[in-house]
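tmp note - PTS system mannose-specific IIB component
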Amino acid sequence: MGIVLARIDQRLIHGIVVTQWAGHTRAKRLMVVDDAASKDEVQKTAMRMSKPAGTGMSIIDTDTAITNFKAGKYDDHNVLLVVREPETLLKLAAGGVQIPKVNVGIIFDGEGKTTVKKMVSVNDKEVADLKALKEKGIPVTFHFVPGDAEEPLETYIK
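out:
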């Protein structure tokens, strides 16, 4: 099966992901692809402690993810992929990773960012990256929790 959903969530693995999205997607593996988190043993330990029983977890860098997906390592898994930035998804797609859908969950506010929706603030690069994902034929939606209405990219980013 591979990736069932890719979620952009700057908190990475946290309550909403493990209690709602993992079940909603029937994920058997939670995968964080983040170059910084993959090298942070404290952060990795904290994320692993929160994973649901019976669910695998990978916290890896972008290059390892591309290598593993190309090798078919996750072909028989339902993978919920979580990344911090849209740019990571572009790198994965460029590396041949099949991404069926992108869910924009949480992108924190900060300098040079515009809030487009509750819990989502983007800068020009993030807007360009989200549009580039859509141009690759990957659906991009805003969807904070599974019970909320799913809204297409164009609702908030023209």
